[in-house]
Design a protein that fits this description.
Elements: H1 3-40, H2 45-48, E1 52-57, H3 62-68, E2 76-82, H4 88-97, E3 100-103, E4 118-122, E5 130-134, H5 140-150, E6 155-160, H6 169-180
Parallel strand pairs: 1-2, 1-6, 2-5
Antiparallel strand pairs: 3-4, 4-5
Length: 197
């Protein structure tokens, strides 16, 4: 067998391996998507386009924030408003743990924000869902307005620091939005109580 034949066989072998790897990855992705939709009963095309911003007023501990990042819903962000004048150590810990960097706070004429607010986002891709706002706490409504000003998504879920969502609350909420036909409303009210949505 000459050198040219060996090179051709090697190229063909590598091409075949690449095709097999691509097929295995595609099947794994399809299987994962089917498992998620069967497991949760969610998964319509419209639901996968619905994004949610959860705005938390006055988070006090690192664990509170970690718990809010653990939702199974894939199209959401968590905007946490903290007051470093009350607990500078918390903001410092968050900056270290999530590799937060300070970014410009947007100015929105329709929603004026009182006081100076500092905005932080993570440099790490795995924490891209987390947004931290540092500002003097005046009221929950002020904190929520601050969160709305920087929210990436149209659907807003405001929470106080002692309110938590159950692990499947966001997917179920989105599913009910689409089933009720109210997904086009600008404002939806929902009962929020301690430890559940």
């Amino acid at each position: 067998m000459d050198l040219f034949s060996i090179v051709i066989l090697t190229v063909l072998s590598l091409s075949l391996v690449a095709v097999v790897v691509a097929a295995v990855r595609t099947l794994a992705a399809l299987r994962k998507g089917r498992m998620l939709s069967e497991c949760h009963g969610y998964g319509s095309e419209a639901m996968s386009q619905t994004s949610v911003s959860v705005v938390v007023s006055g988070a006090r501990t690192e664990d509170e924030i970690e718990q809010r990042l653990s939702s199974e819903y894939w199209r959401y962000e968590v905007i946490v408003v903290v007051d470093s004048s009350l607990d500078a150590k918390l903001l410092h810990t968050l900056c270290l743990k999530y590799a937060l960097i300070r970014v410009n706070f947007p100015t929105i004429e329709e929603l004026p924000i009182d006081g100076v607010a500092m905005l932080y986002r993570s440099r790490q891709r795995r924490y891209r869902r987390l947004v931290v706002i540092d500002r003097l706490h005046r009221s929950c409504a002020d904190d929520w307005n601050c969160g709305v000003a920087v929210a990436s998504f149209d659907r807003i879920v405001p929470l106080e620091s002692d309110r938590f969502l159950l692990p499947d609350a966001l997917p179920r909420w989105v599913m009910e939005l689409h089933e009720s036909g109210r997904e086009r409303n600008e404002v939806l009210s929902a009962q929020v109580a301690p430890m559940h949505f």
